[in-house]
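tool=predict chain=A
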Amino acid sequence: MQVQAPIRAVLAPVTPLQQNCTIVWCVRTQKAAIIDPGGEVPRLLEALKAYKLTLEKIWITHGHLDHAGGAAALQEATGCPIEGPHPDDAFWIDEITASGAKWGMPEARSFTPDRWLADGDTVSLGETAFEVFHTPGHTPGHVVFFHRQARFAQVGDVLFQGSIGRTDFPKGDYNQLISSITGKLWPLGEDVSFVPGHGPMSTFGQERKTNPFVADQVLAGA
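tool=predict ok
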């Protein structure tokens, strides 16, 4: 998948859970960020070489193992700073090493981000920038990365094509998740294409029409 300039992006699903790790880059500088490196770091490094990219940032939407388990190894290999998630997910990051051992991903390790993120922050990449939105509900410290000009968002496990994130994990909150989707994502515009944490891409407009959890018609009748 490629997004129109000034950025481009390619999906690189990783881990047995097929989590949508994304390599996004500034077209003018070829500087890249890897969003949610859950694992398979050697393959991600090879992808950077294949696209002739220089890694500049590591961005994390939330602290779950399949999204953040490879961040420590990727930082060790490249020296790049880790930015995100919101500090309310620190307890999830602290559990990554133990969770990796439990779920057969022994290479996964906990870490401390170089920069915690908050609602309204921006993160830079080459000559371009992404807006940060704090979107709790799936996890308390979940964030979304949005490039306004490209009409592109990486939403982690907040929203999926035809579904929404789970809220049965510790500190998950269904009402908070619905509020994050309708209050933070929908105002960005129906034309925004988004990469979910798992599965195929979609647009906010399509989900507002057809998603059985958050379609406008469904919420209007709730």
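The mean pLDDT is 96. The chain is about 25% helix and 25% strand.
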